[in-house]
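Sync notes, pocket subgroup
Present: LS, DG
LS reminded everyone that the earlier model was apo-only. Rerun requested with 4-nitrophenyl phosphate included. Inputs:
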Amino acid sequence: MVCLGNICRSPLAEGILKNKIEKACLDWEVDSAGTGDYHIGQHPHYLAQKTAKMYAIDISCQKARQFQKEDMLRFDRIYVMDNENYEDVKRMSKELWNKEKVDLLLNELFPGENSDVPDPWFGTEKGFHEVFAMIDKACERIIASRVGEAFISSKNISVNFKKSL
Ligand code: 4NP
């Protein structure tokens, strides 16, 4: 899961997908990174942490890191949050770039539309909730398209219990 700072969108995506993977008893490895180096070593934005916590997902231990070209080899699939991230990952991957592995996350929901997960960094808490909902649906599709809708229903992975508002 890749965004610009690795403190808002991709930490949420990492936390959400890991949560669903656990519920579905899958053994996939998930990580996140940023194309920028501004926030390396920092924990997720407090509003990203707060939003995730409302859905019983703890992302407080994550620490930002920068995308490395070797990630292109290490992972089978790389999801970017927006079109700028896509171009940055392509540029940073250099000779290791593999187009087949990389896609915009929202193409899982709207194939071929190349829509961005908007950056909530400059916005309000509401923006983090909107981004959470988009990423949540997309992550559900990632699992459903690989293990089947029936499996998803049986594991109840789509229910993110809201602890408090
Ligand atoms: P993210 O959000 O890419 O979703 O982590 C951002 C975080 C920080 C900055 C930009 C976007 N920044 O400019 O520092």
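DG: The mean pLDDT is 93.
LS: Strands lie at 2-3, 33-34, 78-80, 102-104.
Action: DG to write up.
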